[in-house]
Design brief:
The protein has helices spanning 13-58, 90-94. The protein starts with 12 loop residues before the first helix and ends in a 7-residue tail after the last helix. The chain is elongated. It has a domain at 13-62. It is mainly α.
Length: 101
């Protein structure tokens, strides 16, 4: 028959409890700091959001301009000077070696 293995369980002791309490205090301090920052941001952003919503509601809106060429049968003509380039002579016609402007 195998021999039973003896396991000794020791308590935390004073330093162990101090470490646990320090970790809990640090966790609580971090949570309180996060809560304070969140409340501060909320108290700053809430009035900004309310004022912007009120301004959006009360200020006059810009009216959209009607399209100038909508509904007409005439084509829209863009005037300008255009040059048709041959793809083989494209670099030479621009006068540069690299092909970039």
């Amino acid at each position: 028959m195998p021999r039973p293995i003896r396991v000794y369980v020791r308590g935390l002791g004073f330093t162990g409890w101090v470490t646990v309490l320090f970790a809990l205090a640090l966790l609580v301090a971090i949570l309180i700091a996060i809560a304070v920052v969140a409340v501060g941001i909320f108290l700053f952003l809430l009035p900004v959001i309310l004022v912007s919503a009120l301004a959006y509601y009360l200020l006059p809106r810009r009216r959209a301009r009607p399209a100038r060429h909508r509904g007409t049968k005439e084509p829209v003509i863009l005037e300008g000077d255009f040059i048709v380039l041959d793809p083989k002579n494209d670099r030479e016609s621009r006068g540069d070696e690299t092909g970039w402007r």
